[in-house]
Amino acid sequence: MSSKRSSAHIRAQKNGKIRDDYTCQICGSKNDVEGHHIIDCQFSGAAATDNIISLCHHCHNLVHSGKLNLFKF
Question: For the chain, how are helix, strand and coil distributed in percent, rounded to 5?
């Protein structure tokens, strides 16, 4: 599987960050904000803004390491 995201995914991430005012939706940080797919594309997650949550790099790492569960937050 290729690690490159399609232009639709990149656009969705950008639009999600704009919607969220480049603010982490967990801790409120405005530093190093990234777009995170709520349902990953490998699990048929849509390349759509409503499938994106803006997270700072720290919170994004916590999600991917399993230390922060978005569905329980």
Answer: 35, 15, 50
